[in-house]
Amino acid sequence: MHRFEDLIYRSTSFTLSALEKTNSKIIEALQTSGSTNHVKNLQMIQLQKAIFAIGMISMFDAGLQDQLSCRNGFEGAKNVLKEKQNLELHDSFDEFICAINVLKHGEGRSYDALVSKSETLPFRIKLRGENFYDEGDVSEINTLIEVDDNFVLNCAILIDKVS
Fold first, then answer.
1. Which pTM was predicted?
2. How many whole angstroms separate alpha carbon 132 and alpha carbon 135?
3. What are the residue ranges spanned by the domains of the chain?
4. How many contiguous H segments (helices) and E segments (strands) does the chain have?
């Protein structure tokens, strides 16, 4: 098998393209019918993106553990990035690790760390007291991190860069 890092961007592009095709068909169907099934399907697509992002980052962690012979692949990779003085990539990687933790676990240390720098993040985080990213968007799911195509692609790009 080819290396995970070599396949993930291709896999991500393929998945997002397939989801976009389905999304477009549902949006078109919504023009003539406000069916609850259409709304559920739009939300299912958003949920699938979150599951995909969590899965790819989790699999990357397992690969890092193996490659670096350590128990915490993320910490091992961040240490290597620090040693190589690649602090910009280190910080970006840390932000996305925190975002994935927030998607998996909700509020906690990772959420607090991201909230403190919410203005500079390359993705949107729902702050305390906020109910929606875009009120009226029927596809929105209840997550503290907005998982759009850019977020998912950025996860794949980070995997490639950190590798």
1. 0.93
2. 5
3. 4-162
4. 6, 0
Contact 116, 128 (CB under 8 A): no
pLDDT per residue as tens digits for the range 29-72 = 999 988 899 999 999 999 999 999 999 999 999 999 999 999 99
Q: Which of 12, 2, 3, 1 is nearest to 157 (CA)?
A: 12
Instruction: List, in order, residues 6 or more apart from 48 with CB less than 8 Å away.
Output: 19
Q: Whose structure tokens read 């592009």?
A: 13
Q: Which two tokens stand for residue 29?
A: 């169907």
Which tokens hold the place of 117? 């720098």
Secondary structure string (H, E, C) spanning 49-78: HHHHHHHHHHHHHHHHHHHHCCCCHHHHHH
